[in-house]
Amino acid sequence: MAWGLLLVAGLLEVGWAIGLKYTQGFTRLWPSVLTLAAMTGSVLLLGAAMKSLPVGTSYAVWVGVGAVGTALFGMLLFGEPASAGRLLSLGLIVAGIVGLKFSTPA
What we know:
82% of the residues lie in helices and 0% in strands. With 106 residues, it is mostly helical. The protein starts with a helix and ends with a helix.
């Protein structure tokens, strides 16, 4: 259950990170409202996951999911470069997330 909460928290982090682009400095109402809601949900779910998972693992996975997802959406939505080096680096982050999952009790 905690891992599921952590995954959703990470996905919400992707949502708010991408949402920041659409808020235009929090000058657009609905993108700002949705971004703030995603921020709140993300942190609340991270906190809930930390009840049974180690803080270091939880935070690292949350940041990792958010970083990988945000980078991929940046490539898809905003035409950011998808070079081999970037993709390899994102793959290494995913490998780290998987490694943490399999080496953490709970």
